[in-house]
What we know:
The protein is an alpha+beta fold. It folds into 2 domains: 2-136, Sandwich (Immunoglobulin-like), CATH 2.60.40; 141-238, Immunoglobulin-like. It has 3 helices and 19 strands. It has helices at residues 2-19, 240-247, 259-275, and strands at residues 24-28, 32-34, 39-45, 50-55, 59-60, 66-67, 73-78, 84-86, 95-100, 108-117, 127-136, 141-146, 149-153, 158-166, 173-179, 188-191, 196-204, 210-220, 227-237. The strands form 5 sheets. The protein has a 5-stranded antiparallel sheet with strand order 2-1-4-9-8, with no helix packed on it. Strand 15 and strand 16 (188-191) form a beta hairpin. The longest helix has 18 residues, at 2-19. It is elongated. The N and C termini lie far apart (97 Å). The model is unreliable at 1-20 and 251-258 (pLDDT under 50).
Amino acid sequence: MGIRILYLAAIAVSLMSFSGATYLNVIGPATATLNNSQSIYLGKIGPGESFYVLASATTTNSTGFAVNIGWDELEAASLPQGWSSQPSPLYENPMKLKVTVPQDASYGMYNLTIRAVNVQNYSRLGNITVTAYVNVTPNVYNITASPTHIQSGVGQPTNIYIRLNNTGISDDPFIINAYGLPAWNLSDQVVVLHDTKSTYIYPIYVNEPGTYHFNLTVVSATSPSIGATFPVTVVAQASLLNDYSAVGQGVILSPIIMEPSYEFMLLLSYIYRHISR
């Protein structure tokens, strides 16, 4: 009798484990293997930005049998008021659900319900729902720019190095622009993927001698409240020394055969500036 009871208990435990075997494997922007009704924190997002939830279509059925394409679609079953979403295309693997936060969203923690669907229950999986948490905040990027005080030759491009550290979960583009600099209206668009760091080169130049003050802006293309502004000063002088120094910024004055001369001229400008301090 005791052995039989232990046998029945083992069967019961086995069935319980099989009944909870169906799962959703979330692979971005955070990673976790979730059973029905479990939750995951995805990360930070700015107002007006969009993000993708990626999940594998692979799972197991109620008997523990692996189903390679078990989930057919990933969708948002419920969203905070004013939010919008686009479900993943049918039979996509990995599945990609797009979620957009409204630009007027208040800062704070929000939750949404995500559902993986087995269309027409073909694989006998039913559906699975999990809760995802995101933190809406403007502090999703760390941005620096250097140099912000520049000595340049007239008509000679000078590079500003912009470093962006994306600490959020959006891959939205940024617009780099200079406001208040005469004869220079170049804007550039860059994309920094979530959880990555990148450095971009933004060239500027002036075509007349003088001291110029302008603002360099780096702003999200989808959310104007996310970005940074850097006051920059450019002192442009028509001099041989500045022409030599400008060579170090990558200005090509003549064919590549003259490259040793460029290096020599740059060295002269460095030596002179060091001695004259």
